[in-house]
Design a protein that fits this description.
By secondary structure, the chain is of the alpha+beta class. Helices cover 32% and strands 37% of the residues. It is built from six helices and 13 strands. The strands form three sheets. Strands 3, 4, 7, 8, 9, 10, 11, 12 and 13 form a nine-stranded antiparallel sheet that branches. Strands 1-2 form a two-stranded antiparallel ribbon. The protein has a two-stranded antiparallel sheet with strand order 5-6. A hairpin with a 5-residue loop joins strand 7 and strand 8. The termini are far apart.
Length: 257
């Protein structure tokens, strides 16, 4: 009986483990068969994370280590990942796509045009309805920028944020962080402290494709769960809208033909 129990448990755990694998060696980990199939169909994979310390990104490079450290530092209670794979014909096309997305990220005023679907209101809004550039500094070698803005998104008060992006050989990095507290307007309480809403994007060449990895993490005060149903869709929904918009901009329809 003991031997049978051991064999049965081994079979169960082996079956569960087979459902998740390193679907793309050296890039993403712990993807289920369904998630792998979605990526192979060219879909944007979106999934919430319960354990923010275990991201799906597993590249052995400085960018990955930086992203992991930033997420761990804020100890978020709301985290979501975004992944996509875009086929490329050659490095010239990959370089063109990376430069295109850098231009989109640089146009912060254009973020206002990003559509955001409100699950609570059942309607589409602009991601931001205000975007005022306060400062813009070019990086060395003209490969990116640091941009400080004052922005507004319902249902929160205006707050300052900093956007950074850099374009290097075969890779693109983007980071966003709030510089001010994010105040929930209708209840007048500080939902997110400065530095506790982080968006990270990493686009890199790998296996004849551009791999897109994004993660949005927020450490929010939701009155011990009382306002979680309101805050989670509002905060995470906007992160999903942003990364969906950016990913679609990488490969316009005409390049897929």
């Amino acid at each position: 009986n003991i031997l049978f129990s051991v064999l049965l448990l081994t079979a169960i755990f082996s079956a569960r483990a087979s459902e998740r694998s390193l679907s793309y060696a050296g890039a993403f980990r712990d993807l289920s068969d369904a998630e792998t199939a979605a990526l192979e169909r060219g879909e944007l994979l979106v999934r919430p994370l319960e354990a923010s310390g275990k991201l799906s990104l597993v590249r052995d490079d400085n960018a990955t280590r930086e992203i992991v450290q930033r997420i761990r530092t804020i100890r978020p209670n709301y985290t979501a990942e975004f992944m996509a794979i875009i086929p490329v014909k050659d490095m010239a096309q990959a370089d063109s796509m990376l430069r295109r997305i850098a231009a989109v990220l640089s146009d912060v005023e254009g973020y206002i045009n990003i559509p955001y679907w409100s699950k609570q209101q059942k309607t589409t809004y602009a991601l931001f309805d205000k975007m005022e550039v306060l400062d813009r500094k070019a990086r060395q070698a003209d490969n990116g920028e640091t941009i400080e803005v004052r922005q507004h998104m319902e249902p929160f008060d205006d707050f300052r944020a900093k956007y950074d992006y850099s374009l290097d050989k075969e890779t693109l990095r983007f980071s966003a962080v709030n510089l001010d507290s994010i105040v929930y307007s209708y209840q007048h309480f500080r939902a997110v402290a400065p530095g506790n809403m982080v968006w990270e994007l990493y686009v890199f060449c790998h296996n004849d494709g551009l791999y897109v990895y994004g993660v949005g993490a927020v450490k929010a005060f939701d009155l011990f769960g009382l306002f979680r149903d309101r805050l989670e869709p509002s905060l995470m929904g906007r992160v999903e809208a942003f990364f969906t918009y950016i990913t679609k901009k990488i490969a316009p329809a005409e390049e897929k033909k």
